[in-house]
């Protein structure tokens, strides 16, 4: 596997054409996979980030510091878990746009409580997508967006505290979806795009079957435009993840996830989930597809 250290050389064709059409090529957003990788590396270097643990406090501080000049909102709440009440922290970063409504990109950032004793750093599972969204933010903060606002959400408590079930998982997304359902915020969301475990060097993103059809089609269209369609949706699989509380409330949502990580999925939820299994190129591919998907949603 070739490691590309300065962004993606064979980049999204559509962006290249756009860059040619518009003279100011340097102003055209191209996703920086190397930067996303660097963020993910620094974030995973914090170590395990399980709720109630010392690494989690550092992870919160990392996010606060990263977005200290942006519109950062902290959504702190107490979750009832099998180990009792646990204080959790979602983070929301808003980049305003000119169109009425918002596109939400999400990830979880914490690691698993049950894996707290095996040095599980979740390089791909949590850190990679946190880095992805941080690099997306770098491209959004320059000026007011022409299209919809883009909100980035860093969810806490995605992983089960004990055993995965409807009540022991996705604490942060269930909390935020309920809160935003109550105060009318959900009505502003045009699309919710969740990223999970897409840093895998061997990228094969499943078509998650609980996701909204038109949004899946749009992501597929974006992947095709970027020349990356072979990495997207070659197989179908239902996955329970942070998108479900939004799906259930009628928000168009997609989980962009690669749940096939390592030989026989051997790196998933093990101490093997380290940065050497993650690639800047995979992050660049998904970043390019996300930016293109945002553009397509703005055109709808
Ligand atoms: Zn996980």
Give a structural overview.
- The chain is an alpha/beta fold and 300 residues long.
- It has helices at residues 13-21, 33-44, 54-66, 123-140, 171-182, 213-225, 244-247, 280-299, and strands at 71-81, 84-95, 97-108, 145-155, 189-196, 205-208, 232-237, 253-257.
- It binds zinc ion.
- Zinc ion is lined by residues 125, 159, 269.
Kindly list the characteristics that best describe this protein.
alpha/beta; six-stranded mixed sheet; 8 strands; disordered N terminus; binds zinc ion
Topology:
Elements: H1 13-21, H2 33-44, H3 54-66, E1 71-81, E2 84-95, E3 97-108, H4 123-140, E4 145-155, H5 171-182, E5 189-196, E6 205-208, H6 213-225, E7 232-237, H7 244-247, E8 253-257, H8 280-299
Parallel strand pairs: 3-4, 3-5, 5-8, 6-7
Antiparallel strand pairs: 1-2, 2-4
Helix pairs in contact: 2-4, 2-8, 4-8, 6-8
The site of zinc ion (ZN) has 3 residues, from loops.
The tally of helices reads 8
Strand content: 15-25%
* Small ligands present: zinc ion
- What structural class do the secondary elements suggest? alpha/beta
Q: Span between N and C termini? A: 37 Å
Low-pLDDT windows of residues: 1-10, 19-28
Mean residue pLDDT: 92
User: SSE string, helix = H, strand = E?
Assistant: HHHEEEHEHEEHEHEH
Main sheet characteristics: 6 strands, mixed
Count of β-strands: 8
Instruction: Please tell me what the overall shape is.
Output: globular
Q: What is the topology, as strand order, of the major beta sheet?
A: 1-2-4-3-5-8
Brief digest:
The chain has 300 residues and is α/β, with parallel strands linked by helices.
């Amino acid at each position: 596997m070739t490691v590309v250290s300065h962004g993606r050389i064979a980049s999204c064709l559509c962006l290249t054409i756009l860059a040619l059409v518009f003279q100011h090529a340097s102003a055209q957003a191209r996703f920086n996979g190397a930067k996303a990788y660097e963020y993910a590396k620094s974030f995973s270097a914090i170590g395990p980030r399980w709720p109630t643990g010392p690494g989690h406090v550092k992870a919160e501080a990392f996010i606060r510091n990263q977005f200290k000049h942006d519109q950062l909102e902290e959504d702190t709440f107490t979750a009832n878990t099998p180990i009792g009440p646990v204080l959790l922290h979602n983070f929301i970063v808003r980049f305003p746009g000119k169109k009425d409504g918002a596109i939400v990109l999400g990830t979880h950032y914490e690691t698993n409580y049950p894996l707290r004793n095996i040095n599980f750093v979740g390089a791909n599972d949590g850190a990679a997508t946190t880095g992805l969204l941080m690099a997306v933010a770098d491209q959004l903060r320059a000026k007011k967006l022409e299209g919809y606002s883009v909100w980035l959400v860093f969810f806490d408590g995605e992983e089960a505290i004990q055993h995965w079930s409807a009540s022991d998982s996705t604490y942060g997304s269930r909390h935020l979806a309920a809160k935003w359902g109550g105060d009318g915020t959900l009505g502003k969301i045009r699309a919710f795009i969740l990223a999970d475990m897409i840093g895998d060097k061997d990228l094969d993103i499943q078509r998650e079957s609980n996701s909204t059809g038109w949004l899946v089609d749009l992501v597929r269209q974006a992947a095709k435009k970027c020349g990356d369609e072979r990495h997207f949706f070659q197989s179908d699989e239902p996955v329970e993840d942070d998108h479900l509380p939004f799906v259930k409330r009628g928000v168009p949502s997609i989980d962009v996830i690669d749940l096939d990580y390592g030989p026989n999925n051997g790196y998933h939820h093990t101490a093997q989930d380290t940065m050497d299994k993650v690639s800047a190129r995979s992050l660049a591919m998904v970043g390019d597809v996300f930016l293109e998907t945002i553009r397509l949603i703005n055109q709808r």
